[in-house]
Amino acid sequence: MALEYERDTVSAPIELMNFETRHVPGALRLSQEMAWPYRHEDWEFAAMVGQGLVLERAGEVIGTALWWNYGQTYATAGMIIVTASAQGGGYGSRLFNGLLEATDGRDVLLNSTEEGLTLYKRRGFTAWGTVLQHQGPLTLPVTQSARTDVRQATVSDLAAIQAFDGRATGMPRPSMVAALAEVGNVLVIERWGRVAGYVIARRFGRGYVIGPVAAESAQDARLLILAQLSSLHRQFVRIDVYAEHGLGDWLESLGLERVGYATAMVKGRRPVSDGAARMYALANQSFG
């Protein structure tokens, strides 16, 4: 009887539907199958601030794809998974085609693993950069810089942080920034009475993630990262940084090893930062 039930489940039709809260446990199982460190809370947060699709077979989640719209022009995509038993049947293409249709003609950014490059290139994505994943237990003591222009953010700083994020990313992301600030510890650089950079650290995966990190120079980005690391001694920390800014070796010197990388890709036009503001570290590889 058990074998008959298993056969019936495998032959059941696969439906494509909108991601709902009830799908979180199944999505978590998929990410665990991929050895991704997401917690139940991480999936809940991602779904709350974005939208998604699932492939469901007999009530079982066998595929996910989420995206986050930033204004009418841009979106990011991520958390794209198809269970191993369903791969090779065209389900990944079905899922991703649904995502592209749902993003409604926006320019779409994503960070691809080596395995996903072929699919995304077929869909018109081109590579533009590399994201380096650094992580590990923070065993080396880190001391915050004595400079006084890094301080704790207040509620009254939120609008300025959102505006700075928009200049750094070239995309309007006020809702995402507000949601991240709500669950994380936010520090800012203040110069001449204005916000000149910010960083958020929050619980994620095996410990904490530091990101976004937005600043006007790599030196300022390091100051912001050090300020967060100074309170995370002996915690597990992850930071995803753009390779072009040269922070990788410095993070290695702090004991945060490079454990992987992703290829930054875009379908359509890549957003352009405004002025000196740049994004140095991501909230995660899906949100951008």
From TrEMBL:
Keywords: Transferase. The keyword Transferase applies. Signal peptide: none annotated. Gene3D superfamilies: 3.40.630.30, 3.40.630.90. It comes from the Bacteria. GO terms for molecular function: acyltransferase activity, transferring groups other than amino-acyl groups; thiosulfate-cyanide sulfurtransferase activity. Residues 14-143 form the N-acetyltransferase domain. PANTHER family: BLL4206 PROTEIN, SLL0310 PROTEIN. This is GCN5-like N-acetyltransferase.
